[in-house]
């Protein structure tokens, strides 16, 4: 773990704890040791975009995306395609489910992500619902590259890292791990710590503004001082306009109850509340003080940053391994805040020895569920096998083995039959096991015309509140393109029936039933 604290324009504490790698020769963690900080990258993405907009002069955060990208059909409905702005992306207020598993597709790029969005459906109201989205910060990454004319990594280094003296910070997408003083990330596989492959960090960081920054305690102290000073770099040099930083910190959207109330008064003596989302930061309170905070969680790494603007105080911590429910990160920040705010810490020598009890009762490690892996299939394996297609997720492959094997991008999965016909458990292996550690669910569907023919596959584990459905066969891409994006308004529109009929005709012509 690494920790840094800034107070009243000074670095008060910057230190590392433990070893960078399990074993006697793991090396000591210092203030210079590099950690992945995951979604703390979003504040870098937000800060960069407002700086580029200020310097460009043609647009601002309320300019519609269609103007900047010269595309009038970005999303699945006309409302969002016409009116969505950079502010909407920064504040997660589009109402689009995460669809995070798209990031396993090896053909995904920052540029072609734009063309996939119109095939994803919305579940929340526009500008009135909070749906956290790494994909939207991937779009912001692309927009920054359009405005800046360079790769996002180069732009962050040029506009933020270099002016702030963050000389050790880098990116999972381009860094060479052997040249870094790197803390190895670990995955807690039901009690067994396994090192996370660097290749996963590199691939998962593709949409860089959503989570590719790698940094250390020393550099993050400079980042906190920059935000607390409203945009000043070393020696008081202005890096970003004060008004732009103020805008980034301003609340944009209320958080739902289950998001903001993770540490309630009923659970711990002094709760932390998060009330709203700004732009790359969440707004909230601790002990009555206003805070700006954001967590970062990725495979092998956990981080959190908390700013107390009125007290000119900032706290950063990063760690390897797991932190279920943000339990240790948040309470550690509570303890450090109490010290630097001259408050009596609610954690003391007695409660620390029993922590997380008596505050959190059920913190036992999860045990891996047991399933039947040798149940006979309801059909011949060849009936399931083949290529499947979704216009946003693209290609998925089912391989005729026992058990069935599924491949999606770099994700590899074994499928085990459930008691329900054509329903399967999904177990990830190889690199994908770090992304999906428990048994998910896959559902094959038979054709309405011929129940002996499997024509599509539904994967709730990819997006539980809007499971993607992959259609079997290459010809299905033509069906999707004829149908086009479907919005909620379409369903009640008479023309929807005509569009649906056209797709049915395509499918009937494209399959042998």
Low-pLDDT residue spans: 475-513
Class by SSE composition: alpha+beta
Helix amount:
25-40%
End-to-end separation in angstroms reads: 59 Å
Gyration radius, rounded: 24 Å
Shape: globular
Largest sheet: 8 strands, antiparallel
pLDDT averaged over residues: 89
Quick overview of this protein structure:
By secondary structure, the protein is α+β, with helices and mostly antiparallel strands. The protein has 17 helices and 21 strands.
What is the strand and helix layout of this fold?
Layout: E1 2-7, E2 10-16, E3 35-36, H1 41-56, H2 65-69, H3 78-83, H4 86-90, H5 113-116, H6 134-148, H7 152-164, E4 170-171, E5 186-189, E6 192-195, H8 198-204, E7 213-215, H9 217-228, H10 242-249, E8 253-254, H11 257-260, E9 272-277, E10 282-286, E11 289-298, E12 301-308, E13 313-320, H12 327-340, H13 349-354, H14 381-384, E14 386-390, E15 394-399, E16 404-408, E17 411-417, E18 423-429, E19 440-446, E20 454-458, E21 469-472, H15 476-483, H16 488-491, H17 494-510
Antiparallel strand pairs: 1-2, 1-13, 3-7, 4-7, 5-6, 8-9, 9-10, 10-11, 11-12, 12-13, 14-15, 14-21, 15-16, 16-17, 17-18, 18-19, 19-20, 20-21
């Amino acid at each position: 773990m690494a920790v840094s604290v800034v107070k009243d324009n000074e670095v008060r504490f910057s230190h590392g704890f433990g070893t960078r790698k399990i074993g006697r020769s793991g090396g000591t963690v210092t203030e210079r040791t590099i950690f992945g900080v995951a979604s703390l990258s979003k504040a870098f993405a937000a800060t960069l975009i407002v700086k580029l907009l200020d310097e460009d002069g043609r647009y601002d955060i309320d300019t519609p995306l269609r103007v900047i990208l010269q595309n009038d059909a970005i999303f699945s409905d006309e409302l969002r395609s016409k009116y969505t702005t950079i502010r909407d992306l920064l504040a997660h207020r589009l109402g689009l489910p995460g669809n995070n598993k798209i990031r396993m597709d090896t053909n995904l790029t920052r540029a072609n992500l734009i063309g996939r969005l119109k095939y994803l459906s919305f579940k929340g109201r526009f500008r009135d619902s909070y749906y956290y989205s790494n994909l939207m910060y991937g779009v912001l990454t692309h927009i920054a590259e359009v405005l800046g004319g360079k790769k996002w990594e180069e732009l962050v280094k040029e506009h933020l890292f270099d002016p702030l003296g963050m000389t050790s910070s880098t990116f999972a997408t381009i860094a060479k791990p052997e040249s870094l003083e790197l803390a190895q990330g670990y995955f807690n596989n039901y009690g067994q710590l396994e090192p996370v492959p660097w290749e996963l960090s590199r691939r998962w960081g593709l949409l860089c503004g959503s989570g590719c920054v790698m940094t250390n305690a020393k550099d993050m102290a400079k980042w906190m001082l920059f935000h607390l000073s409203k945009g000043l770099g070393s020696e008081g040099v202005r890096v970003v306009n004060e008004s732009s930083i103020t805008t980034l910190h301003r609340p944009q959207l209320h958080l739902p109850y289950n998001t903001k109330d993770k540490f309630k008064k009923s659970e711990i003596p002094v709760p932390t509340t998060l009330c709203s989302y700004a732009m790359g930061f969440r707004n909230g309170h601790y002990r009555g003080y206003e805070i700006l905070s954001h967590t970062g969680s990725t495979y092998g790494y956990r981080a959190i940053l908390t700013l107390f603007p009125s007290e000119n105080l900032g706290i950063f911590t990063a760690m390897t391994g797991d932190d279920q429910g943000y339990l240790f990160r948040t309470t550690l920040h509570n303890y450090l805040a109490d010290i630097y705010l001259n408050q009596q810490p609610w954690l003391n020598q007695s409660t620390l020895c029993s922590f997380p009890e008596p505050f959190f009762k059920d913190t036992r490690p999860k045990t891996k569920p047991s399933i039947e892996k040798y149940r006979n299939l309801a059909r011949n394996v060849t009936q399931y096998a083949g290529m499947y297609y979704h216009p946003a997720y693209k290609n998925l492959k089912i391989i005729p083995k026992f058990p069935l094997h599924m491949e999606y991008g770099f994700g590899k999965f074994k499928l085990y039959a459930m008691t329900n016909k054509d329903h399967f458990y999904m177990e990830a292996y190889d690199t994908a096991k770090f992304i999906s550690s428990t048994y998910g669910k896959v559902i094959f569907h038979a054709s309405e015309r011929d129940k002996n023919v499997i024509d599509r596959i539904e994967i709730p584990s990819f997006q539980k509140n809007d499971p993607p459905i992959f259609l079997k066969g290459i010809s299905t891409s033509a069906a999707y393109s004829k149908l086009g994006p479907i919005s909620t308004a379409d369903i009640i529109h008479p023309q929807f029936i005509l569009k649906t009929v056209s797709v049915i005709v395509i499918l009937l012509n494209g399959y042998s039933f």
